[in-house]
Every structure is written in C-alpha cells, then in structure tokens.
Amino acid sequence: MMRKFxxxxxxxxxxxxxxxxxxxxGNVYDVSSVFKDGEHAGIKAGRDLTIDFAKGPHTDxxxxxxxxxxxxxxxxxxxxKVFTGTSLQTDLLxxxxxxxxxxxxxxxxxxxxxxxxxxxxxxGYLTQTVHLAPPIAGLVILVEFFAGLALILGxxxxxxxxxxxxxxxxxxxxxxxxNGFFLDKGGIEYVFVLFLVALFLFVxxxxxxxxxxxxxDRYQRR
Length: 222
Prior knowledge:
Blueprint: E1 4-5, H1 7-11, E2 21-24, E3 27-30, E4 39-40, E5 43-44, H2 50-55, E6 68-72, H3 78-83, H4 90-111, H5 118-128, H6 134-153, H7 157-176, H8 189-204, H9 211-220
Parallel strand pairs: 1-6
Antiparallel strand pairs: 2-3, 3-6, 4-5
Helix pairs in contact: 4-5, 4-6, 4-8, 5-6, 6-7, 7-8
C-alpha cells in the first residue's frame, strides 16, 4: 500500500537529515539524486511543487526520472491541526511589510510626502541633531526610499535588505540605544524587530513572488 504524506510530513523530507522528497499533482517523488543539500535551482525539497511548476517552463515529463514513494493527501492529523502553521509564503508578507515601512519613511525624508520634512529638513536634522556626516545622512535617506521600493517589488532584495539592516543598526546605536529597550521610552525595540526582518530577507532572498525570481528563472533558461 502506498504511503500517504500530509504537507507537514512531506516537509520533514527536506534533503538535510532525510531523503529529499517533493510533491507534484498528488504524488510524492524521491528527488535526492538531484536535490543536493535539499535544494535544486533555488527550489527547496519537502514541498508540494504543483503550483510552482504550473508557473514555470517545466513539463510533467521531468518527474518520470524520479521514483514515486507515496501520495500527497490534504488530510491533517489532530496534532497538525493544533500545532502546525500555515504554508503561506510568509517571506512575501515580511518583504511587503518592511518595504512599505521604509518606503513611506524614505518618502517623508526624500520628497516631503506623508507630512515629512523633505530632503533639506531631514538633512538638517541628521547632520545637526544626530551628528551624522552629510554623505552618511544623504545615504540613509536614499537607502530608506529606494531599498523600501526594491523590497516591495522584490527586486535586488538581498542588497536592499542589507542596506536596511545597516540603517536600522546605525539608528539603534546613534539614537535609540541610550533610551533602553522599550518603544514607549524611545528604545531599540522597534528598530530591533526591523533589523531582524531585514536580516531574514538578506539570508533568504525575495521568495517566489518577486522580480528576482523572474530574473533568475529567465537566466536559468538561457
């Protein structure tokens, strides 16, 4: 009898400590021969690839080279219903959240939108109150605006996330750290969370719904 895999059970076979399995149109395939260290061409094992392959250039014939080891089921055990989370692409949600926050603040600083002080007002604050050198102050404004926009689009996500991580780290040490941790005291609580989200995106990249993914797929087809 063919073994049945739930989505959560399939995720355990990520090619790291166990064989690399993927789901496709209800079947589960052993792709360990191709997915080295659990990844191949930016695609990670332990997932149902049915939707991803429908968007890409591959055909069903590619799976004829891999053995079927089971069937993928939508059924969930009581354990899974209670303790497991969603399979939603949370990287997109995090990217949009961070991108919108920094684009909005960058637009305040660069263009004077949303009640901001614009370039000259912000430069005056950063250089005279925060005591940043003018080139650094200008770079902070540009990074917030353009890196925020890049994250929203999912374009050059890793460089954009790195820029934002450095900006938040700088803000933590120059402005917030003397006030302690908590947000209501002007502490580092908020910029600490922003820094960690930026670090996550720097490590993991844009995810599947992004311009970066389109560029990568086009490059791989060349």
